[in-house]
Amino acid sequence: MSVDGEEVFERLSLRKVFLNPPANQELIGRVERRLDHAMHPFYRDIYSRFDGFETIDVTSGVTVWDLDYLLEFSPDCQLRDGHTAFADVLFLAEVLSCSFSDPHEPVVAAFSGHTIAESSYEFWRGFASGKRDPQFEYFL
Predict the structure, then answer these.
(1) pLDDT tens digit string along 70-122?
(2) Is residue 64 one of the residues assigned to a domain?
(3) Counted domains in the chain
(4) How many Å apart are CA 129 and CA 15, to the nearest integer?
């Protein structure tokens, strides 16, 4: 079952997560050039609705980074297997990574190697609804 950017945005807004204003297409294009591949329309949709979190989500301890932050630290954000770090848990206790070009790829905890979700769709659907994923339990 898939999810789209509008649903993610609405669910996070209902949960009162502090979201940044949307990223503009120029910024998304700069990130794509830096990563040397196009973002999948799923991620373009998300970032065109909100550009990461203004602050940590107190329910989960997760902070989704804005694209300027990703650009600033992009050499450190590009990980193995085409994954890119896009969020952290509890102020960098762990870093989450995904494939911006293929949302069917898993979301992985970069430091520990744990699979957080089998796909970006699964991650965002559960995360936006406030579901406490058992994989997050070792962070908290």
Answers:
(1) 888 755 555 556 788 899 888 778 889 999 999 999 998 888 888 988 999 99
(2) yes
(3) 1
(4) 8
37-44 long-range contacts, CB within 8 A, separation 24+: 37/82, 37/100, 37/101, 38/101, 39/100, 39/101, 40/99, 40/100, 40/101, 40/102, 40/103, 42/4, 42/5, 42/103, 42/120, 42/121, 43/100, 43/103, 43/120
Please tell me the pTM assigned to this model. Answer: 0.85
Return the residue matching tokens 């991650």. Answer: 123
Rounded distance between C-alpha atoms, residue 105 and residue 108, angstroms: 9
In a domain, 139, yes or no: no
Provide the 3-class DSSP secondary structure of residue 45. Answer: helix
Cα distance between residue 83 and residue 97, in whole Å: 6
Beta bridge partners of 117: 107
Residue type, 27: L
pLDDT digits over 28-69, tens only?
999 888 888 899 999 999 999 999 999 888 888 889 999 999
